[in-house]
Amino acid sequence: MELDLYFSNYTYVIIFVLFGVALPVVSLTFGRLLRPKNPYDDKLSTYESGIKPTGEAQIRFHVAYYIVAIEFIIFDIETVFLYPWAVSLGQLGWVGLNAMLIFILILALGLGYSWKKRVLEWN
Amino acid sequence: MELMPMVLYAGVLLQLILAGVAAAILFERKVIGYMQLRTGPNRHGPWGILQTVADVLKLLIKEDIIPHAADRKVFVLAPIIAFVPSFAILATVSWSENLYAADLNIGVLYFIGLSSVTTLGVLMGGWSSNNKYALLGSMRGVAQMISYEIPLVLSIVGVVILVGSLNLRDIVFFQESIGLWLFIPQFLGFVVYMISAIAELNRSPFDLPEAESELVSGYHTEYSGFRMAFFMLAEYVYAIAISALATTIFFGGWLGPDFLPGEFWFLLKMCFFMFVWFWLRATLPRARVDHLMNFGWKVLIPLALLNIVITSIIKVWMG
């Protein structure tokens, strides 16, 4: 019974995902019957405020984006640890609390270090 | 396990959500119109009620243009990737005590985990367009969305500590048992949640990925017709979902006076949050990109961590 309920909950998730995929696929497929199709070169060129596009757009971009991504991963992993801890804090008591406070302190030190190193500046 | 009622529930909810999005767009234009001493749309139907319907029909009969330079497969996939998670997270919303679909015991985690997939759609759309504005918009958008996802996720941890469960319904039952909506004991977490939710939704004043005065229209510059509509749809469904999450965890979900059903109170609170997003859009000018990033990392994340530390100490202290 318990397991049945568990599966039915996740069946809902699967149904929702399928509906989410079906809506764009179906409406775009049937939309083909309604919309005109008249492509020519000028229409299919990349938009660049009306002038002829120069060069590629898929270029290397600023390193600041990568640094933000790395910082994000560090903190995202922190949240992965925080959630199970938060659920069970009632049973963990002071020991669990101290362990997590030390963990947060280390991360806060890391954040302070990157702050000091001006990694978080954006320009 | 009956499959038919489940499919029916999802299908009906999808249509209600689409109608809700149409209403929300009209509501937004009306609210902002009146705030700027205009009347907003008023030509299609009484009080402009059919305006969004007309807009959607127009988008449906527009030509679908995929530029030569675009990466075709990724270009086609991006709006779908952006839309699917925004609808799928609604599976776990409990609209009232009896009206709910998936009662997941990891509800909060499912919600925030899946909703971050939307970022991928933005990245794919901007990159595959092979357009300079789109690339800039999507890179900005991704940097902003991942930066504000951390305070968003951390701000909910305080609630999880107090309740001791990730189940969205348990969170509402907890608020019923203590007779207090959690935005009062978790006020700091609530403020951090609201600010980072706006950035996560790319709404004004944090709508930098679509800053139309500098980037044409950001990551979906090259999209036209119904493909663009799905990016917009994803944005509004996501706004509804984030409002529903805020209602559930901070505003007591379906709780309210008994003379009206729980669904009504839930929708009322959700509309309040939607109204707040529109209100802010009409009030505040767009933030600068460096200010935005600094604010996220140097103010919101430390505040969210502080909230977790205080809440956990109080929780253990009280036993």
UniProtKB/TrEMBL annotation, chain A:
The chain crosses the membrane at residues 12-34, 63-86, 92-115. The keyword NAD applies. InterPro entries: NAD(P)H_OxRDtase_bac/plastid (IPR023043), NADH_UbQ/plastoQ_OxRdtase_su3 (IPR000440), NDAH_ubi_oxred_su3_sf (IPR038430). GO terms for molecular function: NADH dehydrogenase (quinone) (non-electrogenic) activity; NADH dehydrogenase (ubiquinone) activity; quinone binding. It is an enzyme of class 7 (translocase). Keywords: Cell membrane, Membrane, NAD, Quinone, Translocase, Transmembrane, Transmembrane helix, Transport. It catalyses: a quinone + NADH + 5 H(+)(in) = a quinol + NAD(+) + 4 H(+)(out). It is found in: Cell membrane; Membrane. Its EC number is 7.1.1.-. Coiled coil: none annotated. It comes from the Bacteria. It holds the Pfam family Oxidored_q4. The keyword Translocase applies. It is a multi-pass membrane protein. One of its GO terms (cellular component) is plasma membrane. NDH-1 shuttles electrons from NADH, via FMN and iron-sulfur (Fe-S) centers, to quinones in the respiratory chain. The immediate electron acceptor for the enzyme in this species is believed to be a menaquinone. Couples the redox reaction to proton translocation (for every two electrons transferred, four hydrogen ions are translocated across the cytoplasmic membrane), and thus conserves the redox energy in a proton gradient. NDH-1 is composed of 14 different subunits. Subunits NuoA, H, J, K, L, M, N constitute the membrane sector of the complex. Belongs to the complex I subunit 3 family. This is NADH-quinone oxidoreductase subunit A. It comes from Texcoconibacillus texcoconensis.
From TrEMBL, chain B:
The keyword GTP-binding does not apply. The chain crosses the membrane at residues 6-27, 74-95, 107-127, 148-166, 178-199, 236-256, 262-280, 300-318. The keyword Membrane applies. PROSITE patterns: COMPLEX1_ND1_2 (PS00668). Pfam families: NADHdh (PF00146). It is a multi-pass membrane protein. GO terms for biological process: aerobic respiration. Keywords: Cell membrane, Membrane, NAD, Quinone, Translocase, Transmembrane, Transmembrane helix, Ubiquinone. Its main location: membrane. It is an enzyme of class 7 (translocase). GO terms for molecular function: NADH dehydrogenase activity; oxidoreductase activity, acting on NAD(P)H, quinone or similar compound as acceptor; quinone binding. It catalyses: a quinone + NADH + 5 H(+)(in) = a quinol + NAD(+) + 4 H(+)(out). It is found in: Cell membrane; Membrane. GO terms for cellular component: plasma membrane. InterPro entries: NADH_UbQ_OxRdtase_su1/FPO (IPR001694), NADH_UbQ_OxRdtase_su1_CS (IPR018086). Its EC number is 7.1.1.-. HAMAP family: NDH1_NuoH. NDH-1 shuttles electrons from NADH, via FMN and iron-sulfur (Fe-S) centers, to quinones in the respiratory chain. The immediate electron acceptor for the enzyme in this species is believed to be ubiquinone. Couples the redox reaction to proton translocation (for every two electrons transferred, four hydrogen ions are translocated across the cytoplasmic membrane), and thus conserves the redox energy in a proton gradient. This subunit may bind ubiquinone. NDH-1 is composed of 14 different subunits. Subunits NuoA, H, J, K, L, M, N constitute the membrane sector of the complex. PANTHER family: NADH DEHYDROGENASE SUBUNIT 1 (PTHR11432), NADH-UBIQUINONE OXIDOREDUCTASE CHAIN 1 (PTHR11432:SF3). Belongs to the complex I subunit 1 family. This is NADH-quinone oxidoreductase subunit H. It comes from Texcoconibacillus texcoconensis. The lineage of its organism: Bacteria, Bacillati, Bacillota, Bacilli, Bacillales.
